[in-house]
């Protein structure tokens, strides 16, 4: 796995040995659960996907079971919020958003563009 570590704690972009890549952009509506044992923070969510799954199909098969939590990033006045894009070497892609209504996943043509607009 190789990744870009930024802002003192965020794994911004990551790719694994199977060719799956995860990236983040700002996403204001993001909602994550309370801290719990085994939960994954928004800072390492993409890293978690890249280290636990080989491709987009595996991510999507398991996305509902991933516990997530919002944590602060030192030096920022508020906790940063994100959404993620995952792609793999087959060309498959998905955008993952954790909204108040639950996990939203966009695939195929709906996942061609991800912006940081909320």
Structure notes:
By secondary structure, this protein is mainly β. It is built from two helices and eight strands, in the order ββββααββββ. It has helices at 45-52, 56-62; strands at residues 2-6, 10-15, 21-26, 40-41, 68-69, 82-87, 93-99, 102-107. The strands form two sheets. A six-stranded antiparallel β-sheet has the order 1-2-3-6-7-8, covered by helices on one side. It has a two-stranded parallel sheet with strand order 4-5. A hairpin with a 5-residue loop joins β2 and β3.
- Beta percentage is 25-35%
Shape: globular
Q: Tell me the number of strands.
A: 8
**Roughly what is the average pLDDT, rounded to an integer?**
84
N/C terminus separation? 30 Å
Described by its quaternary structure, the protein is single chain
Q: Count up the helices.
A: 2
What is the spatial order of strands in the main beta sheet? 1-2-3-6-7-8
> Which stretches of 5+ consecutive residues score pLDDT under 50?
none
- Alpha carbon gyration radius: 13 Å
* CATH architecture identity: 4-Layer Sandwich
**Structural class of the secondary structure composition?**
mainly beta
Main pleated sheet? 6 strands, antiparallel
Search tags:
hydrolase; 118 residues; mainly beta; 2 helices; two-stranded parallel sheet; globular; 34% strand
List the helices and strands and how they pair.
Elements: E1 2-6, E2 10-15, E3 21-26, E4 40-41, H1 45-52, H2 56-62, E5 68-69, E6 82-87, E7 93-99, E8 102-107
Parallel strand pairs: 4-5
Antiparallel strand pairs: 1-2, 2-3, 3-6, 6-7, 7-8
């Amino acid at each position: 796995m190789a990744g870009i570590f930024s802002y003192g704690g965020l794994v911004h972009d990551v790719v694994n040995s199977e060719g799956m890549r995860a990236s983040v952009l700002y996403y204001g509506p993001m909602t994550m659960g309370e801290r719990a044992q085994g939960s994954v923070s928004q800072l390492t969510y993409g890293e978690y996907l890249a280290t636990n799954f080989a491709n987009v199909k595996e991510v999507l098969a398991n996305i509902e079971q991933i516990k997530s939590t919002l944590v602060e990033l030192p030096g920022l006045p508020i906790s940063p919020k994100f959404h993620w894009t995952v792609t793999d070497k087959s060309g498959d892609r998905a955008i993952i958003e954790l909204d108040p209504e639950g996990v939203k996943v966009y695939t195929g043509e709906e996942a061609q563009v991800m912006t940081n607009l909320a």
